[in-house]
Amino acid sequence: MAGGSGSILFEPAKAGLRGTVIVPADKSISHRAAMIAAISDRPVRIKNFLQAADTLSTLHALQVCGVESREETGAGSIAASEQPDGVMVIEGMGLRGFHRPKGMLDAGNSGTTMRLLPGILCGQDHHSYKLDGDLSLRLRPMDRIVNPLRSMGVDIKASQGRFAPLVVNAGKVHGIDYEMPVASAQVKSALLLAGLFSESPVRVTEPSVCRDHTERMLAAAGADIEKKGLTTIIKPASRLQLDDLTIPGDLSSAAFFIVAACVIPGSEIILPDVGINPTRTGLIDILKEMGADIIIENAYEAGGEPVADLRVRSSALRGVKAGADISGRAIDELPLLALAGAFAEGDTVVSGAAELKVKESDRIAGLVENMSLIGVDIKATPDGFIVHGGNGVEGGISRFKSFGDHRLAMLGAIAGLASRSGVVVQGFESVSVSYPLFAVDLRLLAGGLQ
Ligand code: S3P
């Protein structure tokens, strides 16, 4: 690796990826742990809390509302072997204990912070909260939470009715029976959290399966929550008690190494303690259908979430069709199929994934522009993309632009390792959103990488 001012050259791997890497903690679960701990009755100790820009935005936003958090390092009362990276302690304030905010709540780049917090803020007696974010977040649709929350009686305002900044004036909340037009775990979570403060039950129906971490954690904290197929029903709560918990590794971060190991010949890697919640494992299912050699070992449960070690070896791949039925279970990983598809025999077709256009960047446009530049035969469709595979990745002098999007930056990096001539990733620093040490871990697996 070489480069400067946010541009890094990722050279072709000299050999297969080998070794073991512990990926960072799950981002989605870390956000939820901080928020649900904040409205619990007592302090909650969260082991392996993700220390990255997005989850720190959640902690800072909570601090503005008077929720204290502190890092416990060293052995203390915890065996050092159990938690080398320390523990985040969140001082639970009880359901309605947030203070008048000391200022604006800055969600930074984090959609999860911006979309979930209003579900809690609306129940905090009579305070008024303003939430804002960076330029990317200000362009992302917030009407998807604003409209249903308004139907629940929440006084919430958005710029032009649909963008950040948002203002939430806490007050009375009533129930709703809501069919989500898009499969969004963030929308589902905002409504379920608001349901805790509601005068009557909240029912949310998702059009297809999306991640269920909020439901699992609320159930663990004692909420009255029930799942019937694609519908979740939550009843008002009087208190929550979240036990101390350990966050598993993030499958969405592991995904970059998984795909890299699949396509770089001679690879064999182990990724211990990764979350394998079935609402998140769409990529593994799709890759296995493509012929990938992925083995799930030593499965166990932690904090209500299934966890396991993943062993991945390189293998020949064939093209695949991934549609709307699976895209919600793989939404953040779908761009990686452009790289897997480039190495597969035949066409890889991703559809039913128009949501990719409203992520941290327009991931269909950014993906197609970047992958075309590095020699992949790819074209955009209205709700996905098609890759004509078999020729791998050339790479070369063109720059792979992150567009400020952490997942595009990491994709560019592994595309470089898998390429014939290397790839320069521009704006690589955006990885700090979810995986600040990504390049270090990639170097570890690539061994000979400079
Ligand atoms: C997330 C849900 C997904 C995902 C995002 C994190 C979450 O978004 O893309 O990165 O933590 O709930 P949607 O809610 O739009 O599905």
Q: What is the structure about, briefly put?
A:
Helix content is 30%, strand content 24%. It has helices at residues 27-38, 53-64, 111-121, 135-138, 143-151, 185-196, 213-220, 251-263, 282-289, 324-327, 336-342, 363-373, 406-418, 438-446; strands spanning 7-10, 18-20, 44-47, 69-72, 87-90, 105-106, 128-132, 155-159, 163-169, 176-179, 202-205, 225-228, 231-234, 245-246, 268-275, 293-302, 305-313, 317-318, 321-322, 344-345, 347-350, 377-381, 384-388, 399-401, 423-426.
Q: Give the low-confidence spans.
A: 1-5, 75-84
SS content category: alpha/beta
Give the DSSP E fraction (strand runs of 2 or more residues).
15-25%
Order of neighbouring strands in the sheet with most strands: 2-15-17-16
Provide mean pLDDT, rounded. Answer: 95
The helical percent reads 25-40%
Overall morphology: globular
Bound molecules: shikimate-3-phosphate
Number of strands: 25
| Tally of contiguous helical segments | 14
What is the rounded Rg? 21 Å
Distance between the termini: 5 Å
Main β-sheet description? 4 strands, mixed
